[in-house]
UniProtKB/TrEMBL annotation, chain A:
One annotated GO biological process: transcription by RNA polymerase I
Gene that encodes the chain: Taf1a
Designated name of the protein: TAF1A polymerase
InterPro entries recorded: SL1/TIF-IB_Component, TAF1A
Domain of life assignment: Eukaryota
PANTHER family, per database record: TATA BOX-BINDING PROTEIN ASSOCIATED FACTOR RNA POLYMERASE I SUBUNIT A, TATA BOX-BINDING PROTEIN-ASSOCIATED FACTOR RNA POLYMERASE I SUBUNIT A
Annotated GO CC locations: RNA polymerase I transcription regulator complex
TrEMBL record, chain B:
Cell compartment(s), UniProt: Nucleus, Nucleolus
Lineage of producing organism: Eukaryota, Metazoa, Chordata, Craniata, Vertebrata
Name recorded for this polypeptide: TATA box-binding protein-associated factor RNA polymerase I subunit B
Domain RRN7-type: 2-33
InterPro entries tied to this protein: Rrn7_cyclin_C (IPR048538), Rrn7_cyclin_N (IPR048540), TAF1B/Rrn7 (IPR033599), TF_Rrn7_Zf (IPR021752)
GO terms under biological process: nucleolar large rRNA transcription by RNA polymerase I
Entry's Gene Ontology molecular function annotations: RNA polymerase I core promoter sequence-specific DNA binding; zinc ion binding
Similarity annotation: Belongs to the RRN7/TAF1B family.
Rrn7/TAF1B N-terminal cyclin domain sequence ranges: 74-240
Domain Rrn7/TAF1B C-terminal cyclin: 257-447
Superkingdom of the organism of origin: Eukaryota
Alphabetized PANTHER family for the sequence: TATA BOX-BINDING PROTEIN-ASSOCIATED FACTOR RNA POLYMERASE I SUBUNIT B
Predominant cellular place of this UniProt entry's protein: nucleus
Annotated segments matching region Disordered: 137-156
Length: 411, 573
């Protein structure tokens, strides 16, 4: 019908917007700026019912263009953002926050700090309550920058300390930064969310001032409070903290157990396996085997010598002791269909041998145990290995020959 | 209003008439000797019969503005438009005699002026009170009009207390405007009286142009409007300072969209009937608007061979659309279908192209190959017209121009420097916003590398021009149609023996709003291309042209359609 094709203000601005978007997608910043110039007057008629209105559109598009356009400067960017702030009360704090990020990305840390402080003191009737979340973020980031200052002061002090200088003013400043930072960081990590950076910094502060209890509590909360989203890093931080403070193996293992459940391919699984293998408890050793097999299910670990070494050592130990062969059987059951092609193909045997002798040694040991001495991998590697100098391949061959019936028991 | 001398005191040209019938300058209230009797034929809306009675017309409101009525505003708009048309070459008679007579007649008929207000309305509008609520809460604005229109007339009282109490009672109703009668203007049911709107100003203009048989079609007029040669968008910029525009006036005078051909045309017909106009001056075959003339124009513009003109004339003659009685407008006559001259002309061309080239995506190309062969081997006697070549040239230009047009639409600037507020309270906000917009435009304008938006194109009635002097052979005017014609019994007829109808039967316009339904997918690409070309030239939807083509075909093949039963739409000619 004719009314659909009627060119109205709204329609022509929609069309304009699509030109801007096309230009931006093709990184034609001049053209995008050109069309934006014509879009801007929609601010004077800002009552679209769309989810994103003209003023937000202009803020975001303008930011992109100014970030990428070759002729734009930081000064221009700042002046643009100030205008956006003046206009968009409903997203004032969001604009401030993103402005601060932009300044940080450009290395203007002091400016960012000033911006954040200014934003913190902003009050605007009921908008202040509505934009509470953004306010908390602003305070948190300001706290982070306070931490950063603190850290700088600390380093200065340590240097001076080495040189034998004392610097009271620096020390005082350092403490005041600490107080400011601590207050804000503490606040933000109360709210369920992912706050890795803030948590780390806060814990660093607490440790420095010796408040280990508080630090432990914070980390525990972060890792175990079910309100917080599942976050492997939380467990990693807790583990690292406990390790630093010489906690018992038992508590370390319990932390890593959860990490294993969430991220079986995590790099700490190697440490985990090492701890478990050495344990006196049978259950722990059983778990260790499970952990190391799980790690090698992932493609990223295929060529990791350490991982194969762990597995090889544990398998060797079990085979030698001739106890708990059923453990191997259990683990191998779900893998026997696909591990041969995944890890032990002839192609891989060649490739591994060419690239990394140690890797092929460890893998050959595992292959020999799991698949027997006649499997492709073992045959190739051991033949190559026996030609090479050194005794270990010959010893390997002997070992596998000795236990050659093991694989039958487990397949 | 046509008194154009500058005031001796303030040098403004802004005249009104006092109660005593003397001229006074509205800017500085300098009364001069010149009186009404001397200048009888001028526009004199200020001297409405009912306001000549004492005391009802204050010259100045407290903020320096003056009282003005909505129809005065429209009068100003029409004046500006007429002046622009005159600058484009329309004869000055249009402004001074025709348009002004029509307008005055309209005012009389709609009882806004030049008559006694005897229809029982004591509307002294509600503007002068300051309303406590503002009109510009954005999301509520659409509903505002609903609520005002839905109020029955009985509730409309005429004193200020109503307005202020109403506005305190409900946040949504705020009936105030800079003009005296702005609010009531929108609220009253004007169906019988044909309320004036901005698009209707163009209807007035077109009606006057038609009366004078000026060489300007409606599509030309609307194109000039969009290109900015005729005031329409933001015309209120030209209102004098004293005529304060705010509140509901904005709804009346600020346009948010471009005028649509159909709408302007329909309104023009309604207007002509409303004013009880007699039969318009005859459109004869020497008039610009006659299909023979217009076809020539469009053939040239579409870069088609001049020889096609013979064929268009033949079709016109055959179906009698060149008859003076068919072409001349007789207002109020509901039985005859009203003629859209420009659409009719291009539809005739389309039909002729179908007659000669079939346009079924096959035949025209094989004809073209044949002509190409002949042109290669035989250089004498001038080139035969090759459809393929023409298509290539036209497509290239059309795509380019279409792209420019589309970008131009995206880049259209709707706001002007003179800001418009809904209420005095929001004035500062509006001004601040305007300032920011200008700042941002400058900032990004610098980054875009271009300085100012493209200049207005010079007004021209031809959008494409093709010159035979071009040596690249891109002008087809002189090409011969011999390649598609053959001699039969001494007459030249088309080689093409077939024809396909766009539709077997026309729809009932009253019921479904259209005579036919055009969907690009249903028709051959060549046909679509031709429609696209003309719809670009006329700035209308292809379906309008398609409708007209259907009507012409029905007339042309009337006998064949009604005498023999048809199973398909193909016809042997």
């Amino acid at each position: 019908s004719s009314s659909e094709h009627k060119l109205s203000f709204q329609k022509s601005k929609e069309v304009c917007l699509s030109y801007i978007q096309d230009a931006m997608l093709q990184k034609q910043w001049k053209r995008a700026a050109e069309f934006l110039t014509f879009y801007i007057e929609s601010l004077e008629k800002d009552f679209s019912t769309k989810y994103v209105g003209p003023s937000e559109m202009i803020w975001r598009i303008g930011t992109e263009i100014l970030c990428h356009h070759s002729h734009s400067s930081m000064k221009e960017f700042n002046s643009f953002i100030e205008q956006m702030k003046a206009f968009g009360v409903r997203r004032y704090l969001k604009i401030c926050l993103e402005h601060a990020f932009h300044l940080l990305c450009n290395g203007l840390i002091d400016e960012a700090y000033q911006n954040l402080s200014l934003a913190e003191s902003w009050r605007y009737g009921e908008q202040t309550a509505i934009q509470d979340k953004e306010m908390k973020l602003i305070q948190a980031y300001r706290g982070l920058l306070d931490y950063y200052s603190w850290s700088k002061q600390k380093n200065i002090l340590l240097e001076h300390g080495q040189d034998g200088f004392e610097d009271l003013s620096v020390e005082q400043e350092m403490h005041s930064c600490f107080r400011k930072a601590a207050v804000n960081l503490k606040e933000i990590i109360k709210i369920p969310g992912v706050w890795d950076l803030f948590v780390k910094c806060y814990v660093d502060l607490l440790e420095f001032y010796g408040d280990h209890n508080e630090a432990r509590q914070v980390l525990n909360e972060y890792a175990y409070n079910s309100k917080f989203p599942a976050n492997p890093n939380a467990h990693v931080y807790l583990y690292q903290f406990l390790k630093r403070h010489g906690e018992s193996k038992k508590s370390l293992i319990s932390v890593l157990k959860i990490l294993h459940d969430i991220v079986p391919s995590h790099e700490l699984m190697i440490d985990f396996n090492n701890m478990l293998q050495k344990s006196k408890k049978r259950k722990k050793r059983r778990l260790g085997l499970e952990v190391i097999f799980a790690v090698l299910d992932y493609a990223g670990w295929k060529e990791n010598v350490k991982a194969w070494k762990c597995l090889a050592r544990q398998l060797k130990q079990i085979v030698s002791s001739e106890k708990h062969l059923d453990w191997i059987k259990q683990e191998w059951n779900s893998r026997k269909d696909w591990w041969p092609a995944f890890h032990f193909s002839r192609y891989l045997a060649k490739q591994n041998w060419q690239e990394n002798e140690s890797l092929s040694y460890e893998k050959a040991l595992v292959a020999g145990i799991l698949l027997g001495k006649d499997c492709k991998y073992f045959r190739y590697v051991s033949r190559q290995g026996c030609k090479a100098p050194g005794k270990r391949f010959r010893l390997l061959k002997k070992f596998i020959n000795k236990h050659k019936s093991v694989y039958q028991g487990i397949s | 209003r046509d008194f154009n001398e500058r005031c001796a005191q303030c040098s403004e040209v802004n005249w009104g008439v006092t109660d005593g019938g003397r001229f006074y300058c509205r800017s500085c209230h300098n009364v001069i000797e010149r009186t009404r009797e001397v200048v009888n034929s001028d526009f004199l809306t200020n001297s409405r019969v009912q306001t000549i009675s004492k005391g009802s017309r204050k010259q100045e409101k407290k903020d320096g503005g003056c009282e003005w009525y909505v129809c005065e505003g429209f009068q100003l708009v029409l004046k500006k438009q007429a002046e622009a048309l005159e600058a484009l070459g329309v004869c000055p008679q249009m402004k001074d005699e025709i348009l002004c007579k029509f307008w005055r007649h309209y005012l009389q008929k709609s009882k806004q002026a030049y008559c006694n207000r005897s229809d029982g309305e004591t509307v002294k509008a509600l503007s002068v009170c300051d309303s406590s609520t503002d009109v510009d809460s954005e999301a509520e604005r659409p509903s505002l009009l609903h609520s005002s229109l839905s109020e029955s007339e009985g509730d409309l009282q005429t004193d200020c207390s109503f307005a202020s109490s109403a506005s305190r009672a409900s946040e949504n109703t705020s009936m105030f405007s800079g003009s005296v009668d702005g609010s009531s203007y929108l609220m009253k049911n004007h169906k019988e009286k044909l309320r004036m709107t901005m698009p209707m100003t163009l209807s007035f203009c077109y009606m006057a142009l038609l009366w004078l048989r000026e060489p300007m079609t409606l599509s030309d007029l609307l194109r000039y409007v969009v290109e900015g040669h005729i005031p329409y968008l933001n015309v209120f910029q030209h209102f004098p300072e004293k005529m304060r525009l705010c509140g509901l006036d904005v709804k009346i005078f600020c346009v948010e969209s471009w005028p649509v051909y159909e709408e302007v045309h329909t309104k023009m017909l309604e207007l002509a009937a409303f004013l009880d106009l007699p039969r318009f001056p005859d459109i004869t075959d020497s008039c610009f608007l006659h299909p023979d003339m217009l076809c020539m124009k469009y053939l040239m513009e579409a870069n088609l061979p001049d020889e096609l003109h013979n064929w268009t004339c033949r079709v016109v003659k055959k179906i009698c659309i060149g008859d003076v009685d068919f072409l001349t407008l007789v207002p109020g006559n509901k039985s005859t279908r009203k003629v859209k001259y420009d659409v009719l002309a291009v539809a005739v061309i389309v039909v002729v192209l179908k007659l000669l080239f079939l346009l079924d995506d096959h035949y025209e190309w094989s004809l073209s190959d044949f002509a190409e062969e002949r042109n290669k081997n035989n250089k004498e006697g001038g080139p035969y017209f090759e459809f393929k070549k023409w298509y290539t040239v036209i497509k290239c230009s059309l795509d380019m121009e279409q792209k420019k047009l589309d970008e131009g639409r995206a880049k259209y600037l709707w706001r002007c420097d003179k800001p418009v507020f809904y209420s005095a309270g929001k004035k500062s906000k509006v001004l601040k916003r305007r300032q920011m917009v200008v700042n941002l435009q400058n900032q990004f304008g610098k980054l875009s590398g271009s300085l100012r938006p493209a200049e207005k194109p010079n007004p021209s009635s031809f959008q494409f021009s093709w010159s035979e002097e071009n040596t690249d052979g891109s002008c087809f005017h002189g090409h011969s149609l011999k390649g598609v014609l053959q001699e039969k019994r001494g007459l030249l007829t088309a080689k093409n023996p077939d024809y396909w109808l766009c539709t077997l039967k026309l729809c009932n316009e009253q019921l479904c709003g259209h005579l036919a339904h055009y969907r690009e997918l249903d028709f051959p690409q060549s046909y679509h291309f031709v429609l696209r070309l003309f719809s670009f030239l006329l700035r209308i939807q292809p379906s309008y042209i398609h409708d007209e083509v259907c009507v012409i075909e029905q007339k042309l093949f009337h006998k064949k359609l009604h005498n023999k039963p048809k199973h398909n739409t193909h016809i042997r000619k």
